[in-house]
Design goal:
Layout: E1 8-18, E2 24-34, E3 38-42, H1 49-56, E4 62-69, E5 76-79, H2 91-101, H3 106-119, H4 135-149, E6 153-157, H5 165-181, E7 184-188, H6 192-198, E8 201-206, E9 209-214, H7 216-223, H8 231-238
Parallel strand pairs: 3-7, 3-8, 5-6, 6-7
Antiparallel strand pairs: 1-2, 1-4, 8-9
Length: about 240
């Protein structure tokens, strides 16, 4: 893939990272996400994907490397696999808290929040408590908070878990609109058929290090697969 550094909204160089010095979980993980690009972070359970994301977010106790945010605002949104909720906050209060933390103006917040609630069919739940929602509805709230911020880069961990087909379609449409706006996306997922369809590039991790990287054609070459091999077939070969 042609990588032009000045277009990067996220540049990661992790020489090693872990929970204590001398016991690295990941090594030599390098990746870039450009403006308007969706990169899939792929790997089996225990391969180091979560550690990579935690390292990017600055949550690992031990890390050697550099993480650089680009873009106009140098702002990211993280959408976790497990929703993070406040027991005594309504849905609307969750959104207002996120907007306040990022300094979003009230009129801008209301317009964007109402639009997103309508899109994900949660308008009628705005004054209800998300801790009582289904897993799918809670995941929708996490996505809404991410889209509300309109960051330079999205870091999204297993976004399809719990979403019904309609909500999945809404999510993919909004993600495409954000890409067109210029946001970059790093998406960790096990849904390989969808990743193959929507991602412009892939980072395949196994046993704590990158085993293949690039567009699907490049991954096929690195995997020693045929020119028409699916991402799943490449995944099987590399992991």
């Amino acid at each position: 893939m042609d990588r032009t550094r000045h277009n990067n909204v996220l540049t990661v160089n992790l020489r090693e990272a872990g929970y204590e010095q001398g016991k690295a979980v990941i090594r030599n993980v390098q990746l870039q996400v450009q403006s308007g690009e969706l990169i899939g972070l792929i790997g089996p359970n225990g391969a180091g994907k979560s550690t990579t994301i935690k390292s990017i977010l600055g949550l690992m106790p031990y890390l050697q490397g550099e993480i650089e945010l680009g873009g106009a605002n140098r702002r990211y949104a993280y959408v976790p696999e497990q929703p993070v909720l406040y027991e005594h906050f309504t849905l609307w209060e969750h959104l207002r808290l996120a907007a306040s933390a990022y300094g979003i103006r009230e009129e801008q917040f209301e317009e964007r929040a109402l639009e997103l609630l309508e899109r994900f069919r949660l308008s009628g739940e705005r004054h209800h408590y998300p801790v009582k929602f289904s897993k799918g509805m809670q995941q929708k709230l996490m996505l809404i908070i991410g889209f509300l911020l309109e960051p330079d880069v999205y870091i999204v961990d297993e976004p399809f878990v719990g979403l019904d087909p309609r909500a999945t379609g809404d999510f993919l449409e909004l993600l495409e609109a954000e890409r067109v706006r210029g946001a970059g996306v790093l998406m960790c997922t096990h849904v390989l058929d969808t990743a193959e369809r929507i991602c412009q590039g892939f980072i395949l991790i196994n046993d704590g290090t990158v085993v293949a990287q690039g567009g699907l054609d490049e991954v096929r070459v690195q995997a020693g697969s045929s020119s028409d091999a699916s991402l799943f077939e490449c995944f099987r070969r590399l992991t």
